[in-house]
Amino acid sequence: MKAWSSSVVIRGYTDDGLAYGSGVVVAKDKVVTNCHVLRKTKSPWVSFGDTSFPVTGVQADRWHDLCLLSVFNLPVEPVPLGNSKNLKKGQEIVGIGHSGGAPVALTTGGNVIATYDFEGENIILSSAKFRMGASGSGLFDLKGILLELILSKLLATEIIIRFLQTGLSHL
């Protein structure tokens, strides 16, 4: 599944040691993650398998906690972006990311419990379980289409799509 292979680890050192989270490749050499994953890191990098790639730029939408990372020469195919507006209660979904900083992507299944409007977009409440380090992981439908990023206040794909399509020109 392309969704599984599009999941990467985001790492960086802080004054307290190594920080980590997850990200999803959404375009050539572009990774979306939650901005709080990068908080206080110095010179973050992206890991895919046992190879690391430097982050060469960060575009941030801090209000939505979304960061788009430019990554040098990342050899990972982007995942297709979906639409969370058509989700149905009970629909199966899959979370894919690197909880606990695991080098290999971990998956968790669940169902859509509900969706909520947030600034004209959908927030997905799901039964999928996640651990520390899951922030920035992707929430996918069973076809491997990215619906949202995982964090305590989930953000809809439409925000991610708008974020990518506008090139963050509003920042």
Overview of this protein structure:
The protein has 171 residues and is mainly beta. It folds into 2 domains: 2-71, Trypsin-like serine proteases (Thrombin, subunit H); 84-165, Trypsin-like serine proteases (Thrombin, subunit H). It has 3 helices and 12 strands; from the N terminus they run αβββαβββββββββα. The strands form 2 sheets. It has a 6-stranded antiparallel beta barrel. It has a 6-stranded antiparallel beta sheet with strand order 9-8-7-10-11-12. The longest helix is centred in the C-terminal third of the chain and has 9 residues, at 157-165.
Task: Give short descriptive properties of this protein.
six-stranded antiparallel barrel, globular, single chain, 171 residues, Thrombin, subunit H, 2 domains, 12 strands, six-stranded antiparallel β-sheet, mainly beta
Q: In terms of structural class, how would the helical and strand content be classed?
A: mainly beta
Instruction: Output the radius of gyration.
Output: 15 Å
Could you tell me the CATH topology label of the largest domain. Thrombin, subunit H
Oligomer: single chain
Largest sheet: 6 strands, antiparallel, barrel
Q: Write down how many β-strands occur, each being a DSSP E stretch of 2 or more residues.
A: 12
Architecture of the largest domain in CATH? Beta Barrel
Q: What name goes with the CATH superfamily of the largest domain?
A: Trypsin-like serine proteases
Mean pLDDT: 81
Series of secondary-structure elements, N-terminal to C-terminal: HEEEHEEEEEEEEEH
Residues in helix, % = under 10%
Under the CATH scheme, which class of the largest domain? Mainly Beta
